[in-house]
Amino acid sequence: MTKQYQLNFSPAWKFIIGIVMLLAVFFMAMILGAADTTIKDVWLALSSSVKSDKVTLLREIRLPRELAGIIVGAALAVSGAIMQGITKNPLADPGLLGLTAGGNFALALTLAFIPSANYVIIVVVCFIGSALGTLLVFGVGLINPTRFTPLKLVLAGSAISAFLTAVAEGISIYFKISKNVYMWTSGGLIGTTWSQLSLITPFVLIGIFISIFLSRQLTILSLSEDVAVGLGQKTKYIKAILFIVITILAGASVALVGNMAFLGLMIPHIVRAFVGPDYRFIIPMSAIFGAAFMLIADTVGRTIHAPYETPIAAIVAMLGLPFFLFIVKKGGKGY
Length: 335
Hints:
The protein is an all-alpha fold. Helix content is 77%, strand content 0%. The chain is globular.
């Protein structure tokens, strides 16, 4: 009965359900918080130029924060889905494979040697750092190509991430910039501004658009590279483009909220259970589910101990670590 129901449940309806869910979560995130706000206040903040204390708070503080959650959640979920498809590794995640740690390392280096760097420079160095982290992880993992397993790749990612994080912390302590680095790398959305959003959002949207455009090729790659070659695909070029997309999405996320692990691992697996193995559906649905998950995590972080905030990275990790161990135990079965 369940299988028949799933077959009759078209992808279009699943997409509509995902959008409705995201909108509901967004309004919930806008309403709930330390400040006592109502649905009317949220509506005025979104649809009018009315000025009051509550409306201004929603419009200038909470709205950019929640939009940043949508952008980051979508970016990390899509980058995780692409990584899992390219590497055929059910444990792949930007936070576990060195991308976010590389971005944090480059960020600490920049704040130490170029303290006057503006946000544009920070975004660029985060892209470069994410690419560096990826190259180091795959370089270590390919030392013995004959034993290149998904678990070995994750172990290499954990080692490189720990190393880059330690170096970043050492730099911040030596140059006495620990507070500045921590504000960037604590994995939170607090303090997000409209100017930051206007710079980061185009990168994320372009990255997601390219990944959707190449989703058919990614589906074939995730199933069999030999079949992809047989169908005339230039797999090296497609992989190169997708790795650039992953770097852009992860680098943009680091520049906006810092280090964030496990989100890119969990969401693609949840989405596959909902839409199946076709990346034409996995990519857009991962963006929707990732955005909704990030909004929920941020709302919990703001309300669980209000008026104090619980780091959103801690909330994501509390949910993500058991999920990671569950996937390890399954050995990737059903992926």
